[in-house]
Structures are given as C-alpha cells and as structure tokens.
Amino acid sequence: DGKYLVSLIEGDGIGPEISQSVKDIFSAAGAPIKWEPVDVTPQLRDGKTVIPQESIDSITRNYVALKGPLATPIGKGHVSLNLTLRRTFNLFANVRPCKSIQGYKTPYDGVDTVLIRENTEGEYSGIEHVVVDGVVQSIKLITRQASERVLRFAFQYAEDIGKPKVRAVHKATIMKMSDGLFLRTAREVAKDFPNVEFDSEVLDNSCLKMVTDPTPYNDKVLVMPNLYGDILSDMCAGLIGGLGLTPSGNIGDECSIFEAVHGSAPDIAGKGLANPTALLLSSIMMLQHMGLYEHANKIQSAIFAVLAEGKTITGDLGGKAKTHEYAEAVIKKL
Ligand code: IPM
Ligand code: MN
C-alpha cells in the first residue's frame, strides 16, 4: 500500500500515551508509516538478557524503529534494555541534536548544536568485577574500530547537515591511553574530510564553556566517547528546557532506533499528563532518516507552532493541556 513498516516499541510508564500522540499526528499528517508493535520485555536465556526473537526480526526487517522509554534498573538486576537494544543491533552512533524551542524560554537563547555519542563501548561495555572485597574494577573499553566508525559517521553527518566543523570532546589529559586513542583516531579520520574543520576540547572545559555561553557551539558537531556523550547530552538538554524536548537517534548499519531519552515517569503514567514532544521530535528525525522530508517538515512546523503559541502545552512546560489536547492542537496546525 506504499507505506513503510516501522517497528514501534511503546515502552513503559508514559510510553503508550506519548506513542499514541505520535500515531495520531502521523495519521493526520498522512505520513506513509504503518506501525508494527513490538514487545521487548526481556527474557533470560543462558543467563543473558535477550529480547524476544520476533522483536529482533521485526526491527531487522523494517530497518527502523521508534521507541518510548523503558525503565532501567539501578545498580542491580538485568542489563538495561536500552543498552541491550543498542548492542543487539550494533547501533554505533547516537545522534542527539539540541536546539532551543521558540516560545519556551530558558536562560539560553538560540542553542543549536549536535552531539554524537559513541554508543557501543567505553564505560558501557558492562565489564565489571570485584577484585577483592571492597575493591571493584570497571573496564572502560576503547577500540580503534568503534572510535573510527563513530568518527567517520560524525564527519559525514557534519558535512551532510551543513555544519562542517567537528569537535572531539575527550579527557585524553588523564585517560591518556583510551581517550588518547579516540583523539588520535579523530585526527586521522579528519584527514579524509578536507571540507570539515576539526578541533578538540577537554570535556570539563566544554561543560564550563557551554553553560557560560553555548552559542560558539552552534556551528559544530561534537563527537565523543560513550559516557561523556551520555552526560554532556543531558547537560545540553538542560540548556533548552530538559529531556522532554530533545530527540535522539541510535544509528547502525543494519537498522536504526529513534527514541526519547527521558524516563518512563511512572508517577504520572496513565494520567494523560505526559509531554510527547521528545518522542515526536525523535519520530521526525526518523522520517528524515527515511528520506521523508516533506512529512518531517510538515509535522515539525506544526509542533513548533503549538509550542511557540504556548497555549496548549503540557504541565512540564508550564501549561495545563493534557497529552491528547496537545496532540490535537498539533493536528489542527497540520
Ligand atoms: C540515555 C539514557 C541511557 C544511557 C540509560 C537509560 C541506559 O540515560 O539514553 O542517555 O545511560 O545511555
Ligand atoms: Mn543519558
């Protein structure tokens, strides 16, 4: 029927409500997407957390998935499902644009930067053990292969979106070997992209400078190892109003998963209070990734128009609208 199948992981807590907004807005916009619901409730197989095979098959078949929040256990239990998904599909680049929303005031105006986070290794390798009682070792794994892969992606991405400046963010001053390898690889990859300017910055300095004045980062794509990207992307989200407003895409060679980075907010789940913007903006990144630019632009303009008006916005943004009222306002703009 000329439609693209996309796997939909609605997620926990507020996941189903915000997914409903995406579905309603997409169908009102005539976006040629057919959703294939996918259940990723973990199964334990041979002591390992795995996701059901049908779900893996669905995502592999469809190449793209949209994902709501999945609850992550803290300090115990199974490996985070979010991480399992990234690993299962080798989603090596995590793209996190951070752009101020017109109409939503924060102390920072006109933020418009992009973070690209290595998404498969670093401190997220999950290699930890007790050496002796009271002494624990966690391995930070950095390989040239994974570094090069995400760096090449970042340079290409920078060229493609017309921000031909890449900055590697690192801590090679201290992590001389691991971050040193990442930084050396960045310098090597830079040679293959003569049209992209390259420089580097130490992470703590990036944080200081960004919260002081983020505008010098507007023409840049920042690329960094996994944990730094996790932390810095939350900080950047803070500059524009929080995780309710920032999209994210996990990109791999075989498939890609677009997701909201915020949590499942169990305290407000099922009450129709959740803000679906982050998942919506992620779904727009997904449309762009699929080459469906017209639908992406149309939906994006409608969302930005509603946010700019500031009348029908959810409680987290200072409004009184229910999730579905916000979605309906977006649909009216379409
Ligand atoms: C993120 C999240 C995840 C991470 C959690 C939920 C595993 O914080 O996507 O940034 O740490 O990567
Ligand atoms: Mn995070």
TrEMBL record:
<keyword id="KW-0560">Oxidoreductase</keyword>
<dbReference type="Pfam" id="PF00180">
    <property type="entry name" value="Iso_dh"/>
</dbReference>
<keyword id="KW-0460">Magnesium</keyword>
<protein>
    <recommendedName>
        <fullName>Isopropylmalate dehydrogenase-like domain-containing protein</fullName>
    </recommendedName>
</protein>
<keyword id="KW-0809">Transit peptide</keyword>
<dbReference type="GO" id="GO:0006102">
    <property type="term" value="P:isocitrate metabolic process"/>
</dbReference>
<keyword id="KW-0520">NAD</keyword>
<dbReference type="GO" id="GO:0006099">
    <property type="term" value="P:tricarboxylic acid cycle"/>
</dbReference>
<comment type="similarity">
    <text>Belongs to the isocitrate and isopropylmalate dehydrogenases family.</text>
</comment>
<comment type="subunit">
    <text>Heterooligomer of catalytic and regulatory subunits.</text>
</comment>
<keyword id="KW-0479">Metal-binding</keyword>
<dbReference type="InterPro" id="IPR004434">
    <property type="entry name" value="Isocitrate_DH_NAD"/>
</dbReference>
<dbReference type="GO" id="GO:0000287">
    <property type="term" value="F:magnesium ion binding"/>
</dbReference>
<dbReference type="GO" id="GO:0005739">
    <property type="term" value="C:mitochondrion"/>
</dbReference>
<feature type="domain" description="Isopropylmalate dehydrogenase-like">
    <location>
        <begin position="5"/>
        <end position="330"/>
    </location>
</feature>
<dbReference type="InterPro" id="IPR024084">
    <property type="entry name" value="IsoPropMal-DH-like_dom"/>
</dbReference>
<dbReference type="InterPro" id="IPR019818">
    <property type="entry name" value="IsoCit/isopropylmalate_DH_CS"/>
</dbReference>
<dbReference type="GO" id="GO:0051287">
    <property type="term" value="F:NAD binding"/>
</dbReference>
<dbReference type="GO" id="GO:0004449">
    <property type="term" value="F:isocitrate dehydrogenase (NAD+) activity"/>
</dbReference>
